[in-house]
Design goal:
Impact, 20% strand, four-stranded antiparallel sheet, UPF0029_Impact_CS, alpha+beta
């Protein structure tokens, strides 16, 4: 496999794991080998009126050279509704050529469903819908790489100057732990605006004997440099191969910045396979939601609905 093919394959893996973490049970794997996935999207979480299933197939050239192959499934979706939504998705693809776009597609579809729910359109007839899909649980994955730990703080030394003034230590927050088959995962979060603050937070965390004894302390951070209008970002696997990159990709998709997230894993002796990445991302997302860096899916739906209502009200005033 060529290097470019390997890179695209890894981009696909990272995107799918991030989406699985964001959307939970609404995201499912139809066929892992064929790269077929499905997500159930609705206008709200409690009592949805409008629901749609987006099924995608990721070709080998996605995201850099080929778009996803997709199908929109809903009994009410036909004619002009289908055409308008399909055009919107294709426009998003063209505006983001070469980039991962599934998250943008899902949120665009949710926005359309919220708009329909707030309009005077009658609710769709959903009696005939059937969404039976089998989820691939990944039990055939047998390897769980556990190499010797290295101190991740050393990785930051080249980026920081010891001669510069000490940065104030930001507040550090701790998320709720997740335990699976004797392995425990816990996320820690701190607001940061410089790499020196990142280093200080990591040093402070390592003063805690329990955190220092973790099998892995995976981290990623994103800092927005306003003067250059660019992001300063980096990640560290700490021996859990590719975990740092997956964590950073999740933060990019969620568009969080000026924050450091560390996920500690205490290995319990039982191999978890790809579930370990799911737990790392879920811990990270939960702590970002808890400390208001990311709205929950429910809050996101409410905000999208509110902004739609404001735009519609403004349009009515303009027309009158």
């Amino acid at each position: 496999m060529a290097a470019s093919d390997t890179g695209r394959a890894q981009q696909q893996i990272d995107e799918i794991e991030a989406l699985s973490s964001i959307y939970g049970e609404d995201w499912c794997v139809v066929d892992e080998d064929e790269k077929i996935y499905c997500i159930k999207i609705s206008d709200c979480l409690d009592q949805p009126k409008w629901t749609l299933c987006l099924q995608v197939i990721l070709p080998p050239g996605y995201p850099t050279e080929e778009p996803p192959i997709y199908q929109l499934n809903a009994p009410w979706l036909r004619g002009q509704d289908y055409t308008e939504l399909a055009n919107s998705l294709e426009e998003i693809y063209l505006q983001n050529l070469g980039e991962s776009i599934l998250y943008l597609w899902v949120e665009k579809i949710r926005e359309v469903l919220i708009e329909k729910a707030q309009s005077s359109e009658p609710e769709p007839d959903i009696k005939k819908t059937s969404e039976e899909v089998d989820e691939d649980d990944g039990e055939d994955f047998l390897l769980d790489y556990e190499p010797i730990q290295e101190d991740p703080i050393k990785m930051l030394n080249y980026m920081t100057s010891e001669s510069q003034e000490d940065e104030e230590l930001p507040p550090i927050h701790h998320g709720n732990p997740i335990t699976d088959r004797r392995s425990t995962f816990q996320a820690h979060l701190a607001p940061v605006v410089t790499t020196r603050q990142v280093k200080r937070v990591l040093e402070k965390l390592y003063e805690n004997k329990k955190i220092a004894s973790a099998t892995h302390n995976i981290y990623a951070y994103r800092i927005y440099c306003e003067d250059k209008q660019t992001f300063l970002q980096d990640c560290e696997d700490d021996g859990e191969t590719a975990a740092g990159g997956r964590l950073l990709h999740l933060m990019q998709i969620l568009n969080v910045h000026n924050v450091l997230v560390v996920v500690s894993r205490w290995y319990g002796g039982i191999l978890l396979g790809p579930d370990r990445f799911k737990h790392i991302n879920n811990c990270a997302r939960n702590v970002l939601v808890e400390y208001d860096y990311v709205p929950s899916v429910e809050e996101s739906s409410r905000q999208a609905g509110k902004s739609k209502k404001i735009r519609k009200d403004n349009k009515k005033r303009t027309e009158h």
